[in-house]
Amino acid sequence: MPDDNSSVFLDGPIPGQSLTTEPKSRPWQVPPQYPTVEDALNFYVPRLSNPELAAPMVDAMEEGMSAVGVADLIQSAGFMSGLHTADVGLLISPVLVELLITQADIAGIEYKVGTEKSDVPDEGLVRKAMDKASEEYFDDSVEVEDEITEEELIAPSDGIMSRREV
């Protein structure tokens, strides 16, 4: 009787399986529904302007997800569904971010845009730390070992395949 874990390995795709589907049966294999930026925005703007349809996105922003992250999810899902191409998705992202920010402002929630400065220390502190590290690294007071001679570099080997000295 086969082990229960053996079926896990058989659940994956068979090599070459992607070549056996009917041509143009996947959303990304057919021309997009909205091929231009204007067409894609005409699809997204009414939906994100409707408070009821935008509520799940606003909820995600209220939970801590950034507006840029939500916009990326929206445009990625649209691309994978065949609504638009990847480049159109990238071009409409800033507009989606602005629409999401507007909806968050209307809802009166606190949100992150996603372009905020991260927890990067002050540039002056970084420079001071680098200077201190450089001083310690290039400190002349540290004793350096004597130079190694060529004879020390070529040490006799005691391995199996080493030649014996005669």
Structure description:
With 166 residues, the chain is mainly α. It has a domain of 86 residues. Helix content is 51%, strand content 0%. It has seven helices and no strands. The longest helix is centred in the middle third of the chain and has 22 residues. The chain starts with 5 loop residues before the first helix and ends in a 13-residue tail after the last helix. The mean pLDDT is 78.
Give the SSE map.
Blueprint: H1 6-10, H2 37-49, H3 51-62, H4 67-80, H5 86-107, H6 123-137, H7 150-153
Main features:
flat, mainly alpha, about 170 residues, about 0% strand, 7 helices
Provide a concise account of the structure shown:
With 166 residues, the chain is mostly helical. It has seven helices and no strands.
Strand segment count: 0
Structure annotation, total helices: 7
Looking at the chains present, what oligomeric state does this protein adopt? single chain
* Binned strand content: under 5%
C-alpha termini separation: 65 Å
Mean pLDDT, as a whole number?
78
Name the poorly predicted regions: none
Indicate the radius of gyration in whole angstroms: 30 Å
- Describe the sheet with the most strands: none
Q: What is the helix content?
A: 40-55%
- The geometry reads as flat
Helix/strand order, N-terminal first: HHHHHHH
Structural class: mainly alpha
